[in-house]
Amino acid sequence: MRLSAETSLPPSVQAPGYDRAAQAAGIVHIGIGAFHRAHQAVYTDDALAAGDRDWSIVGVSLRSGDVAAQLNPQDGLYTVSTRSAAGTQLRLIGAVRKVLVAAAESQAVIDAIAAPTTHIVSFTVTEKGYLRRSDGALDLAAASSPSSLYRFLAAGLAARKAAGLRGLTLLSCDNLAGNGAVLRRLMREYLAAEHPGLVDWFDANCTCPATMIDRIVPATTDADRAAAEAALGARDEGAVVTEGFGQWVIEDDFAGPRPRWEDAGAELVADVAPYETAKLRMLNGAHSALAYIGLGRGHDYVHQAIADPEIRPVIDRLMREEAAPTIDAAPGQNLAAYADALLGRFANPALHHRLIQIAMDGSQKIPQRWLETLAWHQARGARCPSLEAAIAAWIAFLRSQHPVDDPLADKLREAAAGPDAITRLFGEGGLVASEWQPLTSA
Ligand code: CS2
């Protein structure tokens, strides 16, 4: 039997604590993968359970129909399994109303963005989903393709302006440095090229807050779905698995109403940068290093790599001696305690977080995870042995038999094959955007 609103839940499974059917949709979320379902949707579910109203989420997949096929037959319902060494807890999330597939229902997506009840459009489209060139500008040709998020947003915003509705908060929840400012810049570039009459309205009526968003969410496996089915007594094709930890720091700059996410533990702050920088350079920087070094040493999972006595000291040093000194900590932000907590999270044996999942899209991740740290130290005449080892491991990965899942895969493999790999990848005009100049330092 398939999970649906009719399923009677076992007592061990927490159910949504509010009337789902009575909620208007206040959020359109673009890129409704496992990460959104295990993070922002859970915070929204908590806010609704705490009494906030009308924040149901309309999920959008830009191309693939997979998530729509998982969730729509289940009335948008799915479970989140929280896993630690102490065991697994299952919870049913009610915040998602339905999932639209933009490639097949573009007008429905535009209508959802333009709906009077919608106040927020949020995004988890991964680093490459923003269609940024290596110089930081919008790839206008890609952004004009039928499945570009910019097209749907622009059409939805144009409809709002025409209807005299207020603007929107555009909330990037991806691991980019300055994600809000990046989205604002790229959206403005798109509008300036394609809808110049909308730029001033966009500036006056829409905001793009920065966010730091954190929860480790491995890709769901068949074994995970089977475990959820056994615990639930119903088949959940949309099941997601995650850790107990979650963090969300949001710049308090909304164009209109927002959910009381703080009731669910989110932090609304004036400046997200110290949290975001720490997360990108310490957590994500360590993750990518674990991925390439770990795969090179024959490991499959993060918890195996961090337990390897050859790898652990490299990661410890990367976080504490290379990344942490580059971060201007906020009052009360303790980077040493953060590193301790990260080592504990990486060691979670119940999560089965695959290194190959983290290894994908290296060309899009490495600049903000490693190269900004390297550039900081370079400007002070210092070296970063751990990050240099990580770069060597990435090049070895590109030369290996492992599948390379990256928008630049072919070019990266070709560049990595020769003796001048470092220059072709990171040198001036190289494949990876960088302030770091390897020719003079490494
Ligand atoms: C990971 C992230 O796949 C990756 O690149 O580093 O998805 C990481 O698990 C999350 O950012 C944690 O919040």
Automatic annotation (TrEMBL):
Organism per entry: uncultured Sphingopyxis sp
Name of the protein described by the UniProt record: Uncharacterized oxidoreductase YeiQ
The entry's keywords: Oxidoreductase
Enzyme's top EC category: oxidoreductase
Catalytic activity, EC: 1.-.-.-
All residue ranges annotated as the Mannitol dehydrogenase C-terminal domain in the record: 271-417
Domain (Mannitol dehydrogenase N-terminal): residue spans on this chain: 26-262
Keyword Oxidoreductase listed: yes
MF annotations from Gene Ontology: oxidoreductase activity, acting on the CH-OH group of donors, NAD or NADP as acceptor
Tagged with keyword 4Fe-4S: no
InterPro entries: 6-PGluconate_DH-like_C_sf, 6PGD_dom2, Mannitol_DH, Mannitol_DH/Oxidoreductase, Mannitol_DH_C, Mannitol_DH_N, NAD(P)-bd_dom_sf
Domain of life: Bacteria
